[in-house]
Amino acid sequence: MRTGAWLIGARGSVAVTSMIGALAVKSGLTGPTGCVLESPALRDRVRPGIGDLVFGGHDVTSVPLDKKAAELAAAGVVPAAVATAVQAELTAIDQRLRPLPAAATQAGTAAAISADLEAFRSRHDLERVVVINVSTTEPVPPPHPAHAGLPALRAALERPGTVLPPSALAAYAAFHAGCPYVDFTPSTGARLPALDALARERSVPYGGHDGKTGETLVKSVLAPMFAQRNLKVRTWSGVNLLGGGDGANLARPGANAAKAASKQRVLAETLGYAPQGETRIDYLEDLGDFKTAWDLVTFEGFLGTAMRMEFTWHGCDSALAAPLILDLARLTAAAHRLGRVGPLPELAFFFKDPLGDVPHGLAEQWQALCAFIGTLEPAP
């Protein structure tokens, strides 16, 4: 059941950590810690397995994977011994990566992306290919013809100029190639009516948005606690300090605003109201691939008594995100095999800003995920 995992942003920290992790687990060099589908409750219930994944991808850069792996090892993201042990396999994957195509029109670019996906599937005899966007966060785009329907979008893409942001163009190309698509970023991705129509036309599922790996993961546990105890949250503010390429990108106002909005959605959805406060994201180069988040929550109890709590999260986004990329590739492939079409709201457990009208508390999302897995064909 060989399954392709085609990563948009394949030479970035999250993608390369995912590849190193999959190779290390397959070789028995490490355990699958952090992989949700390898937890005791879900182990051996989803096909394909980690060892069935075959990696490829697009990127705008040309940094060799072994060099990126060495950088991640030096930064403490992956063990140096593991990065060295899988170097030959990374070199083989490097040959499957392609520069992101650029044509005179976005229709031409999408056709070139689709051709790369189809060639990858054929060359490696893959049952299916799941496209996962792990590239940098985009600013929220202005309204465009994608909102007018699929025929209007197709016509607009044939003309010179930018119609779709890169994440949505990747989704368009993936759907045309018959590939499921997952957006692990807060970018537009497949969240447009015209792209939903295309996914249904091509009978493929899609998931997203914005992987839930740190501060928002904690929010999705704590916010239901306040709601269930009927405690009034007055303010909830957070400061996120991060370095690396993601931090540098989020220093741009447009990308920063898109990310901050995604991180705050869980509060209003879970509490039923939006408390005062905001999430701030600051770039701190010295942190490298690590992130520190500090949150302050003020709340009101019985008789109006004012109280507060604080928490600090310090983690490595790449090491937290990478196992989820493997989970999502496997789950989305299994859903495609089952015949699911359109959005996959059951994957909300993995996302800050999930698709569909879904609960935002982690416990309810876990229950929905387990129920979904129960509908999949069990692994032998």
Tell me what the structure shows.
This protein is α/β, with parallel strands linked by helices and 380 residues long. The protein contains 13 helices and 11 strands. It has helices at 13-27, 65-74, 80-85, 87-94, 106-123, 150-157, 166-176, 193-201, 215-228, 244-250, 253-271, 317-338, 362-374; strands spanning 3-8, 53-59, 97-99, 128-133, 181-183, 205-208, 232-242, 279-283, 290-300, 306-316, 342-343. A 7-stranded parallel beta sheet has the order 3-2-1-4-5-6-11, with helices on both faces. A 4-stranded mixed beta sheet has the order 8-7-9-10. Helix 1 (13-27) packs across helix 12 (317-338) and helix 9 packs parallel to helix 11. The model has no long low-confidence stretch (mean pLDDT 92).
